[in-house]
Amino acid sequence: MDILPLDFFPTEILTTILLSTSSTADLTNLAATCHRLNNLYNSRKLVFLTQAFDAEYGPIQDVIQLVTHNASQPAHVTRNVSISLALLKELYHVGRVAKQWEEIYPFKKWKEKFERRRLLTDTERRVFRRALYRSWLYTLAFHTPRHSRYNRLNPVMVRERALLLHNWTGLELAEIADVRQVVRDVLSTSICPSNGTIARKFQKRYPNTRYQLLFNMHLNAAPPQRHSAPALYHQIAVHNHSLNDKYYPKYKPTSLHEPGDEGWGDDVSHYYVLENFLKLDPEQILWLKQNCPTKAHVEAYIHDLGEWFDNNGETLRQTLEFVLVERGVDVDEFWNRIHEEELGVAIDGS
Description:
Blueprint: H1 11-19, H2 24-31, H3 35-43, H4 45-57, H5 60-67, H6 85-109, H7 122-142, H8 155-165, H9 170-191, H10 195-205, H11 229-242, H12 267-277, H13 282-291, H14 295-303, H15 316-326, H16 331-339
């Protein structure tokens, strides 16, 4: 049986083949295989790139709502915009962040039930990204200096926040809640760990030591060190350039460094720290995870965000529960079903 070269296929079939690629890399590689495919690709480049983006990073509409959001328009209003190469570039930036979180999800989701850990299906990956984009949009719209701790319970502000969540079904809200729990776990283990977490990690690295960690619990303790932005980024660059040790040096006690200082408080105070940090968007959290090796670095980053950030917890969970009550949903049952994997991104048995 003779195999026909691509030049003999009708344009409609070649177009269908290009539209069926599952990633931008596949699309561009395929388009480079012959002059005819390359010419066809260039003739409808935006169409092909948009389709490839949606397959790899989509749903594209949710990314568009995130990227095109601005304070001049309510967050819950759907924006219809024309695709351009400049817009696609912004969409790809956000999509790459979502793909990194996509890989983190299984490790955090099944951290305790590790026997259930598995790769996500293509459908689950798309659901995960959609939930992440939507929670990111909420953060971009409502975790800002305009929404201070003094007006978080203002009925007008509560209603404004609820309007965005009312765009989505109860199942979609469960997916967002599931993703937020994973984000919270990343924060609590990698960026602002509690005193107890520091103690457990220290014991794991030095199981035979008799060294007693000294946590900063006293009222007369020295205030946290503040770093200017240039000093912060210099320290980060030096750290990333020179660190070859398998274990994080922040757990190693020295004459200049006390590992206990890396803790962010006991369970009660740590809860409020986490509530504050959940106002950060997914890209900021990833940046802190990858570039801020110590508590001092994280504190400097947070300090530069402004006074509105301190003592002003996130409002997504509060607003989500407000919407659920309006719909007559049992809130406790809602969270229990997520915990039991009956609701969320990865459903047990799926």
